[in-house]
UniProtKB/TrEMBL annotation:
Cross-referenced Pfam families: SH2 (PF00017), STAT_alpha (PF01017), STAT_bind (PF02864), STAT_int (PF02865), STAT_linker (PF21354)
Name of the protein in question: Signal transducer and activator of transcription
Limits of the SH2 domain: 570-672
Ranges in coiled-coil conformation: none
GO annotation, biological process: cell surface receptor signaling pathway via JAK-STAT; defense response to virus; negative regulation of developmental process; regulation of apoptotic process; type I interferon-mediated signaling pathway; type II interferon-mediated signaling pathway
A Gene Ontology term for the protein's cellular component: cytoplasm
One annotated GO molecular function: DNA-binding transcription factor activity, RNA polymerase II-specific
UniProt main location, coarse: cytoplasm
Provenance organism: Pterocles gutturalis
Cross-referenced Gene3D superfamilies: EF-hand, SH2 domain, STAT transcription factor, all-alpha domain, STAT transcription factor, DNA-binding domain, STAT transcription factor, N-terminal domain
Keywords: Acetylation, Activator, ADP-ribosylation, Coiled coil, Cytoplasm, DNA-binding, Isopeptide bond, Methylation, Nucleus, Phosphoprotein, SH2 domain, Transcription, Transcription regulation, Ubl conjugation
PANTHER family according to UniProt: SIGNAL TRANSDUCER AND ACTIVATOR OF TRANSCRIPTION
Amino acid sequence: MSQWSQVQQLEIKFLEQVDQFYDDNFPMEIRHLLAQWIESQDWEAASNNEAMATILLQNLLIQVDEQLDRVSQEKNLLLIHNLKRIRKLLQGKYHGNPMHIAVIISNCLREERRILAAASMPVQGPLEKSLQSSVVSERQRNVEHKVSAIKNSAQMTDQDVKYLEDLQEEFDFRYKTIQSLEQSDKNSALIKQEMLALQAMLNTLDYKRKEVLNKIGRVIHEIDMLMSNMLTEELLDWKRRQQIACIGGPLHGGLDQLQNCFTLLAESLFQVRRQLEKLDELLTRLTYDGDPIPVQRPQLLEKVNFLLYNLFRNSFVVERQPCMPTHPQRPMVLKTLIQFTVKLRLLIKLPELNYQIRVKATIDKNVSTVSNRRFVLCGTHVKAMNMDESANGSLSVEFRHLQPKEMKSSAGSKGNEGPHMVTEELHSISFETQVCLYGLTINLETSSLPVVMISNVSQLPNAWASIIWYNLSTNDPQNLSFFNNPPAATLSQLLEVLSWQFSSYVGRGLNSEQLNMLAEKLMGQQVSYNDYQLSWAKFCKEHLPGKSFTFWVWLEAILDLIKKHILPLWIDGYVMGFVSKEKERILLKDKTPGTFLLRFSESNLGGITFTWVDHLENGDVTFHSVEPYNKGRLSALPFADILRDYKVIMADNVPENPLKYLYPDIPKDKAFGKHYSCQPNEVSKPSDGGGKGYVPSVFIPVSKILNDSTDPHSPSDLLPMSPSVYAVLREHLSPTVIETAV
């Protein structure tokens, strides 16, 4: 079943998450129509290879053209229209930057895998539960309801101001008419009656002026209360969800809803401002003793301007945190002289501001860091915000060509770059702009979440650990001295984040048994980790007992191993991975001989091994574990092929494959057959490929077990074996005992 087919079977709450990351950058129609083709391409590799990305973009357009031909024959007018529009959009948007669409599609596929993994997990973790609280959802609905009510109130007040203007114009006309009469005419009874009517009208004007001012005051008060309480909480919650999403958590949404609220409030405040300007205009034409306008209007206008200032200041946000395109799963880790991207948005979307706001990016502005290193930003660091580049028409700007460059220290050399000093130094990318609108000038500033600057890619794992720890432990967006005294983290939350590293990076999260093993590795046997506090040093700086590496280095090496060498097996759920030797034997001891499981090595970085159970003639149970395979050996032969072709030479020198059933009882070929690089009978003959006088060879992973040994002794894996020797083996062993090699 394709990944897209699995996505379509998810519950509605997960489908809503999928819907959030498909837009005009990569329309869902294309994802649906070209599902299998899209999943069969290596978009991640193309995101770092312009030539490959160019070819993939061309092939994508060819696939769209083929779909157009098909639907044209079916005369599906709506789909024909949409596909033509999408093709034109893809061609125009990515023709000059094909790597960008490769990054987008790679991210979408990865998010799908993360959501599928989350859907398969039986229980949500504490962090994810807090982000999906019913209280938060209720507050979101209340904010939207109140904003709508405020907008309606401001519009109704517009009608009151218009009525007041009409009433004053009538009063002014009638008053001037009387004033134009001769003095003798003013003493007539009719004129005296008209004067009484004008006095009544003036009383009504006074009442209406007070009423309008009171209504304006109530609207301003409602906006003030909403901004001070619920809207501020909504914005803080969105920023917290963004932090969590950056370290692998659920994709954060809600920014479009916030933009709608901010925009409606800004429109309401500008509407109130125009109403106050209209009252000032009416004041210049008519005033009287006890007139409420000159007393109340200045205070109300000052309050409106203050609210507009705060609204604009809070609306300037970093929509997408700094990230190197080469490492999309590791945001906020930046390498010197390597480009990174960052996107900002103004949540107040007004057409008058399109291309009128120029944003300037700087680094470490007006902040003191714990680092002696100083940086400057190279590349285009001033750009105008516009509504044309974003698929949803938001007022935003994306910097795509910024590069951090380290400045020389006063001594003429670079700063201290020790293994932990550099990766615990936090820096900040700052952005500033100025909004000039309707006579108001508002200076805006915002900053990215703290970033870690590295000068060598080998520093990336520890830098990413710092980003994880910071964003897990605090919602403070600018605590650059955080690692002077890093707080402990709740182990249950840390384990949840570690599971996210696997779901976001390699497409499948960790189950409760795997997390228990990690908890034991961090805290010891049988630890109750619900409220246990883990220190930063224990996580990333102190070596594991008896080992020469830290817990995080060990885990990061496993992630790298999965990503590069066993990803399909991991996604299928066939790699138990995190299981101790003791637990492994408990699981296998009662199983059929030849039952095996796959686990990650605890003593070798980035190693994977397999252990199988065997029964001796006297009934004793024995276990055999092969020397762990690392990335060097797995680069020579796919792991699935190793499992298929693995042979053990016993004392009688007859090789056989001891691996029969993947734990608990899945036939090996059923589990891994689709991942074999060729079919079992596809064996080279001596005449095949024997050019230049060489006899072609195949690789067979072989171990030798001595009579007095329970483990393979000095396994000699990937031994070259010629077809003629292999033919001799087949004469002595049936196909059910020995599988042919590649």
